[in-house]
Recover the amino acids of this structure.
């Protein structure tokens, strides 16, 4: 399919009453490429069309009911719903013969959040054959393959496309960091929503932010399926207040990003680890006292937790992974590989 430019789309759409022969396949492809909608073909065609028209500044078309289900008529212009390509089979009805049984080892999806300088990037650098996509500066002292610092969302997408389409031996892609990736997405979201700031438009900008982040997730899903790559998100931590529906509120350590982005990421990944320090002080006799603070006499050990509590955002879908481990990437990834590929492993629901 030849890619249609924005000017070409407008010219063809305005050329005649048939919309210049533009099909729904064309509309869907443009919606994805322009960051309007990450999954247009699961939405009603007329809604996707109007999203594209709105994005281009063209008049939207009123919905009309199609009685035969083959076309979606919009005013005087019609976009034809695509038929399955020749040789492509229709979806078959589910039968018991198609049931998948047993454990299916798949590349892991991990999100690690923690305070600055605790060692998140060093931890991720010990993952299997990693390659870093830098969205923030700070990896100069880490000996690991990395793309140049990304200056835009498009550069991040280009990096992912290179990993998808070019020959390489990398097994893990590390996005460092999630919160700075969000900063790169914001200008595109503002432009796509035709706003001056992400906070304008009664949530329209944030909806576009979520849509563009979904598009990144779609690329990562392709890397997992087609190249069998593991995925790691690194994020900074923020303290956020959580309102308890039963009454009261409490503070929680959470990934530092917009709630829509973190919501998508938290749902998508298999594991969320919270990297933190265990700080204890010693009395004059050398006995450990309760945690106090950071002092020269204090011992400071770094850990990563996978059990969710009211105090921290964490998650673990795999049995066999302890609630807490030292922040040692080599030990963690060795244990995780064994858990995923062990024949007796059972994934948590």
């Amino acid at each position: 399919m030849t890619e249609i430019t924005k000017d070409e789309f407008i010219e063809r759409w305005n050329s005649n009453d048939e919309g210049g022969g533009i099909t729904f396949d064309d509309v869907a492809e443009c919606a994805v490429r322009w960051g309007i909608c990450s999954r247009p073909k699961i939405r009603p065609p007329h809604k996707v069309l109007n999203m594209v028209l709105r994005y281009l500044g063209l008049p939207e078309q009123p919905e009309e009911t199609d009685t035969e289900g083959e076309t979606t008529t919009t005013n005087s212009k019609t976009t034809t719903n695509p038929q399955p390509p020749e040789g492509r089979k229709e979806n078959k009805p589910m039968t018991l013969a198609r049931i998948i049984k047993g454990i299916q080892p798949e590349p892991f999806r991990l999100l690690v959040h923690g305070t600055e300088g605790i060692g998140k990037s060093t931890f991720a650098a010990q993952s299997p054959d990693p390659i870093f996509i830098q969205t923030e500066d700070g990896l100069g002292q880490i000996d690991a393959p990395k793309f140049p610092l990304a200056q835009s969302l498009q550069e991040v997408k280009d990096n992912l496309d290179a990993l998808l389409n070019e020959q390489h031996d990398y097994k893990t892609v590390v996005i460092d960091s999630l919160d700075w990736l969000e900063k790169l997405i914001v200008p595109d979201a503002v432009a796509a929503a035709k706003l001056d700031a992400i906070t304008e438009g009664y949530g329209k900008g944030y909806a576009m932010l979520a849509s563009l982040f979904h598009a990144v997730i779609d690329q990562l899903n392709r890397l997992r399926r087609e190249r069998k790559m593991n995925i790691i998100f690194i994020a900074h931590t923020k303290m956020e207040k959580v309102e308890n529906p039963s009454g009261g509120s409490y503070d929680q350590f959470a990934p530092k990003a917009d709630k829509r982005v973190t919501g998508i990421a938290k749902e998508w990944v298999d594991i969320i680890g919270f990297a933190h320090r265990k700080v204890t002080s010693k009395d004059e006799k050398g006995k450990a006292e309760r945690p106090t603070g950071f002092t020269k006499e204090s011992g400071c050990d770094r850990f990563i937790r996978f059990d969710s509590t009211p105090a921290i955002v964490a998650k673990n879908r795999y049995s066999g992974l302890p609630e807490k481990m030292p922040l040692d990437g080599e030990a963690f990834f060795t244990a995780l590989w064994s858990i995923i590929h062990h024949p007796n492993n059972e994934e948590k629901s």
